[in-house]
Amino acid sequence: MIELSAITKTYAKSAVKAVDSLSLTIKNGEIFGFLGPNGAGKTTTIKVVTGVLKADCGAVRIDGVDLAAAPLDAKRRIGYVSDNPELFARLKAAEYLNFVADVYGVGSVERQERIARYTALFGIKDVLSASIGSFSHGMKQKLLISASLVHDPDNWLLDEPMVGLDPKSAFSLKEIMRERAAAGKTVFFSTHVMEVAEKLCDRLAIINKGAIVFNGTLAELRTSQGVDDSLEKLFLELVDDSEEATA
Ligand SMILES: Nc1ncnc2c1ncn2[C@@H]1O[C@H](COP(=O)(O)OP(=O)(O)OP(=O)(O)O)[C@@H](O)[C@H]1O
Ligand SMILES: [Mg+2]
């Protein structure tokens, strides 16, 4: 479970709040989609939850563990796929996966099993002895996704994970997301692909200009807007409405 309470984040030298008093709870067993236009604050929020960025104020709890009070304990419970798969170019892919497994203290049998499974699913098992610098963008993305699962985290955060994935890998990713949620784990991901969010998510939140403008199920979104539209249309209407309200 991931809990954000009144998170605010302002970047240095910026007058505006990238995230403004944002509260959100992602429950166990849930695939939670995080939607919003470019610059809305999705990446900033995810980086605050993973501890990459420090919030100005507010609290993050991972499975009830306070990130500020017990950062290592909280971060151990997280797997993170950033929006930028730029990794150590000189490392071989296998070295990187083993490095991540070492950091999390994953035993040799478990790591071998997980590395074999995920790299096979994503079709990179045969290139693990190559250096990461020789990988395409999509291959790096698949390596990053595999690495984020090496310690089998209960909370999986992914920032636009579908970008650059071929159809087979995107399918595998969605299957893994479903499998983890079905096992009671938490999946929290941002995306601009409305069709994916519509089909995959149990619940979703829409963020605009650092604030949540909707949080609930697709059915609740339809009820709140009073129309039976696609998520794409509902999203565009809602973001337009919130633009007008703040204009
Ligand atoms: N390193 C930074 N320094 C200053 N401002 C930043 C920085 N990173 C992001 N911002 C600002 O914070 C706001 C939120 O950006 P963020 O990257 O969180 O948006 P996003 O929702 O992830 O957008 P996208 O869909 O384009 O990935 C934007 O106004 C952006 O300009
Ligand atoms: Mg982003």
List the helices and strands and how they pair.
Layout: E1 2-9, E2 19-26, E3 31-35, H1 42-50, E4 57-62, E5 65-66, H2 71-76, E6 78-81, H3 93-103, H4 108-121, H5 137-148, E7 155-159, H6 167-182, E8 186-190, H7 194-200, E9 203-208, E10 211-216, H8 218-225, H9 231-246
Parallel strand pairs: 3-8, 3-9, 6-7, 7-8
Antiparallel strand pairs: 1-2, 1-4, 4-5, 9-10
Characterise the protein shown here.
- It is a single chain.
- With 247 residues, this protein is an alpha/beta fold.
- 40% of the residues lie in helices and 22% in strands.
- It has nine helices and ten strands.
- Strand 7, helix 6 and strand 8 form a beta-alpha-beta unit.
- Helix 3 packs parallel to helix 5.
- The structure holds adenosine-5'-triphosphate (ATP) and magnesium ion (MG).
What is the compact description of this entry?
The protein is an alpha/beta fold and 247 residues long. Helix content is 40%, strand content 22%.
Keywords:
247 residues, alpha/beta, Rossmann fold, 6-stranded mixed sheet, 4-stranded antiparallel sheet, 10 strands, binds adenosine-5'-triphosphate, binds magnesium ion
